[in-house]
Amino acid sequence: MDYLPLFIDLRQKPCLLVGAGDVAHRKLELLLRAGANVLVVAPQLSEAVSDLIQEHDLTVHDREFLPEDVEGAALVVAATNNPEVNQTIFDACEHRNVLINCVDEPKLSTAIFPSIIDRSPVLVAVSTGGRSPTLARVVRGWLEARLPFRLGALAEFVAQRRAEVKQKLTDVHERQRFWDRWLNSATAERVLRGDIEGAEQSFQNEIQTKDIGSVALVGAGPGDPELITLKGLRLLQSADVVLYDNLANAELLEYVRRDADRIYVGKRRKFPGIRQDAVNQLMLEHARAGKFVVRLKGGDPFIFGRGGEETEFLANEGIDCFVVPGITAASGSASYAGIPLTHRDVSQSVRFVTGHRAADRTNLDWPELAKPQQTLVIYMGLPGLKEILERLVEHGMAPNMPALLVEKATLPEQRIVQGTVADLAERVTKAEIVGPTTIIIGEVVGYRQPV
Fold first, then answer.
1. Does 210 participate in catalysis according to the annotation?
2. Which of 57, 232, 241, 449 is the Cys-Cys partner for 261 at CB 3.0 to 4.6 Å?
3. In the beta sheet, which residues pair with residue 37?
4. What's the predicted TM-score (pTM) here?
5. Known catalytic residue at 245
6. Domain 212-327 - what CATH class?
7. Catalytic residue among 267, 365, 371, 423
8. Do residues 440 and 355 lie in contact, with contact meaning Cβ atoms separated by under 8 Å?
């Protein structure tokens, strides 16, 4: 380890900045955010540095650096483009045991500015020891994508309630288990959404019923594993139990913790699947055991995903449940097929309907669906495709209306069958499509730009 990572309190501490160009401006901003009392030494000031000096009423010596300038400084930053001056500054700091950061000169630095993720009071610093600032920024980006935007608010919420939890849960291991579970709970998610009042009400209940877990319904997107949301991915990585089915890409399970339970609740050949009431009971059982459960659902949980039934069931059982939306199959299919779902000239609305057959018939509002100037997206319509298209024509839709079917949307094996309302069913039969599928009907199909 070349450097010991430390977080230093610079509030009201004297710091010296030598130089006043663009690089100095970035360092000055960081020092001011940390609350430092900054002295600037430079013969010339850039406009940006000058503005900060005036805004914060900083002291400036408009001259060349002198070794005695470092006296009493908690930190010195050398941000000049003159190697000889930088060496002089370093020597002066070394002689007086003052920490120095020489920008882009690791050999002349006893302190390194890391790449910072600021979710105050939570701070994450990434450093390569000055070897590659660009790499440090890239790594910061990887980490930043994983950290909730309101992480600081969550830290403050916990800090304000630690004493209360310590009083009610006297055993240190019990407190640790409580916080481990709570930070992956629906209440913590309320804090991250900014619902502090709702979070406080739930928090008080959770202190009393400390062994109760929670459930998240997470939309996995239409197939491509990279289309899951950042929040969905974060929760998936935190889950104690993951319930999944065929509509969620199995590649997403690679992100699940190794010690988490993965339970398949879908349908496969020679396996009838688990009925919805059994899925509900599984979620309830594991939540009551104090576990954080993720129900991973294809597309969006609230668009033909039975998410409403699951949230209603869990609410009636007193289990905290929250929903993370996903990219629905309609958006994924249209985007990967190169079709705009709306277009100012031909479609001012989109209808999502299910082609799932009830009592061996497809029950839909045919006159409404056959109206022009709209886009029709049909989920689960493959078994009843021929009947659906015939009924649309019967109720006034033009037989030459463009229509398209997408199989396994957004996946590498995606297939597209394009035609019209009159011939799409025959084309699909010839292509031996097996699903899952999304059907898109409307003038927008004619605007398709293959991507």
1. no
2. 241
3. 14
4. 0.74
5. yes
6. alpha beta
7. 267
8. no
